[in-house]
Amino acid sequence: MEPIKQSGPESCSPDINPVFLQQLRELDIPEDAARQALLHTRNVSAEEAAMYYFNKLENEEEGDDGRMFKMVFVVNMELGMGVGKVAAQVGHAAVGLYQALQENNSWREMAWKWDRTGAKKVVVQGTNVAHLLELQALAMSLSLPTYLVQDAGLTQVEEGSRTVLAVMGEEETVNSVTGSLKLL
Q: From residue 12, how far is each of 58, 86, 103 by CA, in Å?
């Protein structure tokens, strides 16, 4: 089958079959990686490109120079939340951050690598909302994905209270933001 050629701003490279590209995207393969896989397999099929991508990824993981990723949850200790409330808020932070990770190709790939390397999660103590905002600003300046939970105010804390900050990235970089905080 000949590659389909399109014109216009949404066109694929002439060497890339857009049907195969779409099939790879449906497998949650990042677009740039899918394009590379199709080029390396001479656009034979989506299956060939997928096999190339996953084999390459496995080989990279083995030689990924030990890079580890982690997700850290900073709890606003000033609020005096009970154990169950903290657990629920950390759950909200995990889900919120993971959803945010899915909206960006490089972050989605980071989430995938994080999951493949053990999905490390740590819960630490933050002083107050100002402290959480300061940590979030630092994390964002380092291009780390973050998510800050604002409570609905239905139980223990006031509506809009910022309860937990979630931060994710390469362990060394995340440690530069949260590494000095005490474990909860």
A: 27, 47, 21
**Is 147 in a helix, a strand, or coil?**
strand
Q: Per-residue pLDDT for 123 more than 60?
A: yes
Residue type, 38: L
Distance between CA atoms of 25 and 35, rounded to whole angstroms?
10
Strands 120-126 and 146-150: unpaired
Sheet holding 162-170, edge to edge: 120-126, 69-76, 162-170, 146-150
Supply the pTM of this predicted model.
0.65
Average pLDDT for 177-183: 94
The whole-angstrom separation of Cα 98 and Cα 74 is: 16
CB atoms under 10 Å from CB of 51, counted, come to: 13
Cα 23 to its chain centre, rounded Å, is 22
* Angstrom distance (rounded) from CA 57 to CA 54: 5
Q: Quick one: pLDDT at residue 3? A: 36
Q: The tokens 């910022």 sit on which residue?
A: 162
CA dihedral 131, 135, 136, 138 (to 10 degrees): 140
Sole residue written with tokens 């390459």: 56
